[in-house]
Specification:
Among the domains are: 1-49 and 148-175, no CATH class; 50-143, Beta Barrel (OB fold (Dihydrolipoamide Acetyltransferase, E2P)); 266-281 and 296-421, Rossmann fold; 453-609, P-loop containing nucleotide triphosphate hydrolases (Rossmann fold, 3-Layer(aba) Sandwich). Helices cover 38% and strands 18% of the residues. Strands 11-12-10-13-14-9-15 form a seven-stranded parallel β-sheet, sandwiched between helices. The chain has a six-stranded parallel β-sheet with strand order 16-21-20-17-19-18, with helices on both faces. Helix 9 runs parallel beside helix 10 (297-309) and helix 14 (427-433) crosses helix 21 (648-664). The radius of gyration is 31 Å and the shape is globular.
């Protein structure tokens, strides 16, 4: 009978000991193939590398000792609890090993035999014990570290260690190393074979470091390289109109900027310079304008659209909701009130008669700027000469949408794209999340903006908070009250928007104007509620996170967030950004009864800073190697070994390596670099068409 040949893509049930039942458990962990096993990395290690002395035992310390079983282990029972104790001796010093509900241990230990024990010390007065220690005979203790893998019920560490060891032995010579030898040499990286062997079976801490460095480098390098290739492919294949500055356009732009009721910040001026340079490069623009809440992104968008319009093109501005589309429309109308630029608003609520006029105006070139929701992408919306599309991060603009605008642009070309993001991301992480875009950062807020004072409060503080609310209302200022749910739930003890609305309108402020806003209302109802609020007819708006992004009302000076622990740090910062948009002092109160240390730390972090980039760093730190806002939402592959907070130096190193390779070989045509493509494709799941 011919023995099956094991390959990287072979099913794991080819390994001995993995039957029909067990293979389903491996599948729960996402382990389908041999390659999956190789890249299923330990979450930690048991450190057996150094031997300790019983006399030096410290409470709560992890301890590894070589000792002799001095007496027959005893077994005691307390109800359903079985306790096994074994007296261990080491050079005349003694310690007791204690196990719970593992009665078989009594018969597995031989009196007088030497073992290596690994467990946590418990010291209570003069009583010193080793709690639930692992152990092996001295003859079998030929390892320094043992990997600890994430498990699922029904699988043990032994199952994972055994299967991964078999996979490693079977595939030693079959795993191709993607990195060119010169790159490994430049960055002092070990081979892939060495890294995989020693991430699972390290002999020293240096082995773990070298393996992690190499495998982390691969994860980051292949992803960043893939994103850069998308960007280069985009520049080669996406043809946008050359927006040459029209006659008199520069004079109009200078006059328009001078007419603004505020002075542009240095960061805004730099962003405008970046955009002007983009237009002059005769290449398709695909730029991200990333700024904190209230950093003044809309005026930059308006400048870019004015540049396009006064150079003979139309522009479109796409917002994620009707509320935001209307708000941006009004802002842009105000910006261009004294110019010849004609904006229009198109949403799902637009009446047919008005819609028909807008569609005709676009074809006749009577409408210069179209602001709207996804309605601007509908087939019936055709343009005379579209040159620029501005969108926000929530509408990450892909090839399909851009191609649709290109099809109906009137000139057969793809519009230039500017993406506006109010989600600050640490620079190192931006290299990954936005590796396919050019980036402009706005890290300066307009003058006159005061920081929002932020405090935490508990239920016992509610009467005091309500007094503060009344004071604001009496001062003709307005308030947001944000809740995590729309309606009360019997399963969760959370404040709902409906419940808080009823409480405030009926019991606390019955003579005040209070409104309720949430996502289940019709678009028309939401618009009417927001219009009343923005016109000052409503004192308190009780809402869900529907107001999280972009809503701008400078008269709102207070926000109360119910069950604040239910929101992420970045989301709380976005919510807080809805207030403090005028010149009055603003207050944000985070209501929470939680005593969870992580949740309290998150709330305290928000209280201590108004800087979105500082908040982003803290959010990344708190989440550690897990998902940080931006990774999953942008459809990027997960990281199996990289810690996005701790490995920031490695991110910079791999970015440098990508630049080095592409500067001399932008299409990866050199023999040494050709091998990268299949690995990049696998890492990024790269589509044949670029994702823009």
């Amino acid at each position: 009978m011919t023995k099956s040949v094991i390959e990287l893509n072979s099913s794991i049930n080819m390994l001995p000991g993995i039957g029909e039942k067990k293979v389903k458990l491996f599948h729960k962990l996402g382990l389908m193939t041999m390659q999956d096993l190789l890249y299923y990395f330990p979450r930690d290690y048991e450190d057996w590398s150094e031997r300790d002395y019983i006399a030096e035992a410290v409470d709560s310390q992890w301890f590894t000792i070589e000792a002799v079983v001095a007496a027959v282990p005893s077994v005691h029972r307390k109800g359903k609890l079985t306790i096994i104790r074994a007296k261990l001796e080491q050079n005349g010093a003694f310690i007791t090993a204690v196990w719970f509900n593992q009665p078989w241990i009594k018969d597995s230990l031989i009196v007088g035999a030497s073992y290596v024990f690994h467990g946590q010390v418990s010291r209570k007065g003069n009583l010193v014990s080793l709690q639930n220690p692992l152990y092996v005979s001295v003859k079998k203790a030929d390892f320094a570290f043992r990997p600890i893998y994430p498990l699922t019920q029904g699988l043990t560490q032994l199952d994972l260690r055994r299967s991964i060891s078999l996979a490693l032995n079977s595939l030693k010579t079959k795993q191709e190393d993607p990195l060119p030898g010169s790159l490994r040499k430049d960055y002092k990286l070990c081979t892939l074979e060495y890294a995989l062997e020693h991430i699972h079976n390290p002999k020293t801490k240096q082995d773990i470091y070298l393996a992690r460095e190499r495998l982390g480098f691969d994860e980051l390098f292949l992803l960043q390289m893939g994103l850069r290739l998308i960007k280069l492919r985009h520049e080669d294949r996406i043809v946008s109109p050359f927006i040459k500055e029209g006659p008199g356009a520069n004079d109009k732009l200078i006059e328009w900027v001078q007419s603004l009721p505020f002075e542009l910040t240095g960061a805004q001026k730099q962003a405008i310079a970046d955009i002007r340079l983009d237009f002059k490069r005769e290449k398709s623009i695909n730029r991200l304008i990333q700024g904190d809440v209230g950093s003044g992104k809309t005026v930059i968008a308006a400048y870019a659209m004015a540049y396009a319009v006064w150079s003979g093109y139309q522009a479109v501005f796409m917002a994620p909701t009707s509320i935001l589309a209307k708000q941006h429309y009004q802002t842009i109308v105000d910006f261009f009130a004294d110019t010849d630029i004609e904006p229009a608003l198109l949403t799902g609520e637009t009446k047919k008669s008005e819609r028909d006029l807008i569609l005709k105006g676009l074809i006749d070139n009577n409408i210069d700027i179209l602001i709207g929701t996804h309605a601007v992408l509908e087939e019936s919306v055709k343009y005379r000469n579209l040159g620029l599309c501005i969108t926000v991060e929530q509408h990450r603009f892909g090839v399909e949408q851009r191609a649709r605008l290109g099809e109906f642009s009137g000139n057969g070309l793809f519009p230039h794209v500017l993406v506006m993001s109010a989600t600050p991301i640490p620079r190192t992480l931006a290299l990954i999340v936005y590796g396919d875009l050019d980036i402009t950062l706005l890290q300066e807020k307009p003058p006159g903006r005061l920081p929002v004072a932020t405090y935490t409060a508990r239920e016992k503080d509610r009467p005091r908070v309500e007094k503060l609310m009344l004071k604001r209302i009496d001062n003709k200022e307005q308030i947001y009250v944000v809740c995590p749910m729309i309606e009360d739930s019997s399963q969760q003890d959370l404040e709902s928007a409906t419940g808080i609305y009823n409480y405030l309108s009926q019991k606390v402020f019955p003579e005040r104007n209070i409104a309720l806003l949430h996502g289940k209302l019709s678009a028309r109802a939401k618009s009417a509620i927001m219009a009343d609020f923005n016109n000052g007819l409503t004192d308190i708006l009780v809402t869900t996170t529907v107001i999280e992004v972009g809503v701008d009302n400078p008269n709102v000076t207070m926000m109360v967030v119910e069950n604040a622990e239910r929101f992420g740090l970045a989301q709380l910062h976005q919510l807080r950004g809805r207030i403090g948009r005028g010149t009055k002092e603003s207050l944000c109160v985070l209501m929470s009864e939680t005593d969870d240390p992580k949740a309290r730390h998150r709330l305290t972090a928000l209280c201590s800073s108004n800087d979105g980039f500082v908040i982003a760093e803290e959010d990344l730190k708190l989440r550690g190697p897990g998902d940080f806002f931006g990774i999953k939402q942008h459809g990027l592959p997960e990281f199996k070994i990289v810690n996005l907070y701790e490995d920031r130096d490695l991110i910079l190193k791999t970015n440098e390596a990508v630049e080095k390779v592409l500067s001399s070989d932008p299409k990866l045509e050199k023999v040494a670099n050709r091998r990268l493509m299949p690995f990049i494709t696998e890492r990024l799941k790269l589509n044949p068409e670029p994702v823009l």
